[in-house]
Amino acid sequence: MTEPQLQDPGFEFLDVRDLRLLQGAAPTVSTEHQVARDGVWESAVAANPDLFDGPVVACAGVEWDGLRRLVLTWAQVTYRHYALRRVPGASALPSLFVNVVQPTDDGRIMAARMSSSTAAPGRWQLPGGSVEPPQEHEVLDEAGLRHNAARELVEETGLDAAPGDLQMWAVTRGENGSIGVVYLAPPRPEAVLLDRFEAVAAAERAWGREPELDRVALVRSVGELAEFSGPHADYLAPIVCRYSEALLRRGA
Fold first, then answer.
1. CB-based contacts of 215: which residues, under 8 Å, 6+ apart?
2. What is the rounded distance in angstroms from the CA atom of residue 85 to the CA atom of residue 87?
3. What is the rounded average pLDDT of the residues 73-80?
4. Is 81 helix (H, G, I), strand (E, B) or coil?
5. pLDDT of 87
6. Dihedral class, residue 230 (left if φ above 0, else alpha if ψ from -120 to 50, else beta)
7. Measured over all CA atoms, what is the biggest interatomic distance in the chain, rounded to whole angstroms?
């Protein structure tokens, strides 16, 4: 099995100290591209009826405001918007997502595989997902991203970290220019991680639903990722590497 590439071309860590979010407008899409987009989306739903066209936040702009302060402009779209990536001549906004580095007490981190009912079946990644738009009269700020990350963590793995316990740990830019905000959760014992995941997955199946994640694994190094067949999120290997290097520096 081929060892996963440490860092894909086009992937980067952004050196961010402060993060600011501003709301912008969704892009205008021509009628021609709308029709083509809808055709792509309907074909995807026909192949996977579990897909849904819910509201989601996309990244409408990235700029620096002073030293290490990143300003992200976001726009509300729906998942259908990203079907534009498969329409010749059209363009889609980059996605904006959050994910969580969940360590064990002994320095491993949780990797998870997406189930067959998701938009990325079989892909290995961190717990997390797309950012949901704020409720009416609310704003989306960095605290809102942390709430999104905490919600994704408990929904997918059963681990109920308080948003205030999550630390913004990295910001990434990868495939399609998509921006990921990575949070670090407090370490937990291996047994807690695995038991909570099994419990939430069993509860989903009891309700007749397929869990969003069908498997989790605990990894210490990039080399261990080579044992996982299927696609890997472009950020997974670089984040595993960065976390393991941070542990070595701390130990030194």
1. 112, 113
2. 6
3. 97
4. helix
5. 98
6. left
7. 59
